[in-house]
């Protein structure tokens, strides 16, 4: 006898007889359960083909975040000194932002740390799932290392919620990005920028927004971290059809 999914899912504990159809339904339930769907969502989807778009969007966001995190963990785990190039999806994020002109990576470290402390002092709750990042003001002619002047830099501290009355708040929309991930101390940064923009130029990529320099593992994350274990990601927003 064939039992509806609702019956064998809600029956009290005890021995039951199930046919092949029931076994297949249980397998479907277990598969959807591993993806994180609730019992109500599974029943609604299985029998009514209910709308699970909201759930799917959440899972895609988790998948995109997992891709980025796995890349970052793998490059450190393998002690890989060769930059990793990829196309990634960056999520929508609200940031507390401040601008300055820097003269060295050490300057950048101190500036980001001070902006982060200012953000906390104002009562913002930091968004732990997204790293701090900086925006550079370089124009296209200066992207491949021709300009020796230091660019204006904006420190962006991701926060859990926006305070609209604060003039330093800025919303960054979700975007597709071309990315270069690298591992090493501050000495690799000039060469990293040069290599990044050469890759952008060679691939015919057209930037669709400001370049982000993301400090994934940096002194402001933990002062005990050795400089040769720093991890950086350079990412430039691109149009969706720019993937090469």
Stated plainly, the CATH topology of the domain at 81-242 is called Multidrug-efflux Transporter 1 Regulator Bmrr, Chain A
Biggest sheet strand order reads: 1-6-8-7-3-4-2-5
- Amount of helix: 25-40%
Proportion of strand residues:
15-25%
Describe this structure in words.
With 244 residues, the protein is α+β, with helices and mostly antiparallel strands. It has a domain at 81-242: Regulatory factor, effector binding domain (Multidrug-efflux Transporter 1 Regulator Bmrr, Chain A, Alpha-Beta Barrel), CATH 3.20.80.10. Helix content is 36%, strand content 23%. The chain has six helices and eight strands; from the N terminus they run H-H-H-H-E-E-H-E-E-E-E-H-E-E. It has helices at residues 5-10, 20-34, 39-48, 53-77, 105-121, 189-202, and strands at 84-90, 93-101, 133-136, 152-159, 169-172, 175-183, 212-217, 231-238. It has an eight-stranded antiparallel β-sheet, with helices on both faces. The longest helix has 25 residues, at 53-77. The termini are far apart. The relative contact order is 0.14. The mean pLDDT is 78.
Keywords:
244 residues; alpha+beta; Multidrug-efflux Transporter 1 Regulator Bmrr, Chain A; eight-stranded antiparallel sheet; 6 helices; 8 strands
Show the helix and strand layout.
Elements (H helix, E strand, L loop, with lengths): L4 H6 L9 H15 L4 H10 L4 H25 L6 E7 L2 E9 L3 H17 L11 E4 L15 E8 L9 E4 L2 E9 L5 H14 L9 E6 L13 E8 L6
Antiparallel strand pairs: 1-6, 2-4, 2-5, 3-4, 3-7, 6-8, 7-8
